[in-house]
Design a protein that fits this description.
Length: 230
């Protein structure tokens, strides 16, 4: 008999994986899976049971998450970003959903940690990345959100040039700056900036953060002044 992932439990690995992927990849709630997708497949099961399986799978995967976390913060270069996630507060049934945050971290050092780690937090304050990054002392690439500026002095902050490029392109089509652009001053400014921001040389097409930020670091933890690496 194959080993069951949950001691004395009914589901096998494939069943648990299907439930977890359905919820977190395809955004199918346990209720919808229990009353629609699984029911249509001839499987009758309570949504609480699906929740229990999901919770148990998270417990089993916790050691893997911790290993990935530790390897990530040992790298020399990291990038971070955060996004919102709506959550139902089970302690307040019937209340509107609350806004929580998924903090995303990934490394630039190829081969050493080829993955992305998500860290869940109920806050967007600097306490979330501070707790995750711990003793990290390398270069951290971000979009300039102020929470990242309140971290350890051992961290070198890198500004995202894809964000800077976007503002140049927006200014060229913004009516407020059109007179400046027509006068030639803005064109001169943009052409000068191309030497420092390679992605500006192409006004169309998508440029990834990693491509556009290569070779740039922030010279101050508080200011957005940029300099090019030698």
């Amino acid at each position: 008999m194959p080993i069951k992932p949950i001691d004395r439990g009914m589901p096998g690995v494939n069943m648990i994986s299907s439930v977890v992927i359905g919820k977190y990849l395809y955004h199918l709630s346990h209720y919808r899976q229990a009353t629609k997708t699984l029911k249509d497949a001839g499987i009758t099961i309570a949504k609480q049971t699906l929740w229990d399986w999901t919770w148990r799978s998270a417990q089993m995967l916790q050691p893997l998450w911790e290993l990935m976390h530790q390897r990530l913060i040992q790298l020399e270069h990291l990038a971070a970003d955060e996004t919102t996630a709506k959550m139902v507060d089970r302690e307040k049934p019937g209340k509107p959903t609350v806004t929580t945050y998924l903090w995303q971290y990934f490394g630039f050092d190829k081969g050493k940690a080829p993955y992305t780690v998500f860290d869940f937090a109920r806050t967007r304050a600097h306490s979330a990345p501070k707790a995750f990054l711990g003793d990290f002392s390398g270069t951290l690439l971000t979009d300039g959100y102020s929470a990242y500026q309140c971290l350890s002095d051992e961290i070198t902050h890198a500004g995202c040039m894809a964000h800077a490029r976007r503002k140049f392109d927006e200014a060229l089509t913004d009516s407020r700056y059109r007179p400046l652009a027509c006068s030639g001053s803005f064109t001169t400014w943009k052409n000068s900036a191309k030497r420092w921001i390679p992605s500006l040389a192409t006004s169309t097409g998508n440029v990834s953060c990693q491509e556009s930020c290569s070779g740039f670091v922030c010279t101050s933890n508080r200011k957005s002044t940029m300099r090019r690496r030698n």
